[in-house]
Amino acid sequence: MVIMKRPFSPLVIAAGALEVPATEFKAKCLAMMEAVRAGKAAEIVITKHGKPVAKLVPFEAAGGTLFGFAKGKIALRGDVFRTGELWEAEEHVL
Description:
- By secondary structure, the chain is α/β, with parallel strands linked by helices.
- The chain has a domain at about 1-55: 3-Layer(aba) Sandwich (YefM-like fold), CATH 3.40.1620.
- It contains two helices and four strands.
- A four-stranded mixed beta sheet has the order 1-2-3-4, covered by helices on one side.
């Protein structure tokens, strides 16, 4: 990771991940967010007292819908509506 010591510029962080102190991030966050969104920076690690506390990465939208997400990944075996025990309600039907 590169520790930035000069004013923020998308060209400075194009080389890869960047560590910035929280105070610097606070002052330049909009420019840093734009650089990450535009792909000019892979990620920015925000530090406090030299220790990482947060990471700014590009947003990835969730693909697909909730319905059908497990299609082909789950197999049902047996009768999922039966426990194998005879219930009182079933005694009168049989």
